[in-house]
Design brief:
Chain lengths: 114, 111
Amino acid sequence: VQLVESGGGLVQPGKSLKLSCSASGFTFSSYGMHWIRQAPGKGLDWVAYISSSSGTVYADAVKGRFTISRDNAKNTLYLQLNSLKSEDTAIYYCASLRLATGYWGQGVMVTVSS
Amino acid sequence: DVVLTQTPSTLSATIGQSVSISCRSSQSLLDSAGNTYLYWYLQRPGQSPQLLIYLVSNLGSGVPNRFSGSGSGTDFTLKISGVEAEDLGVYYCMQATHALTFGSGTKLEIK
């Protein structure tokens, strides 16, 4: 199993960014996927979840601003980040968290600053 | 939302010492089907989290048996029986019974 995030970078407050997570080594379409973030020097913070049937759930802090989606044909998970705030600055991980295993990507840094 | 309170926030141990980390939930993590979705992760410096324990007390694949988990309902414990140098990092409990939340973390330092 391999999860590789991309699309991070420096962005101004109020702007948008789209993260991608390329998955391999498992049947991507069969599993729900999460985005989890970690602010610099802080703990883990769940952001969003998408089920195998594309049902979505969001943390209150990002609801209405972030959108999780998936393209099963491309084995890719996405996170659209809109109306970014300084407090969204973090490493963003995609993760496949199953009953008895947990797979995480290496993370991608998003910095929101003017 | 479920809040997971981990204690202590920092732990300093010598090699070979046994230590315990507590994780207390603001709600019972037992679901209607009788499952308790409580997990323990270790995040080593500069790395992504790795699974140690799943469903309260089950050892993850490849995880040394010096790690053990116990508890029920709202109170859970991770024990390391004989700390080794490679165990340094931050330990997180995570619950998946009610959406997904993480504890605030326990940093293990080696003396």
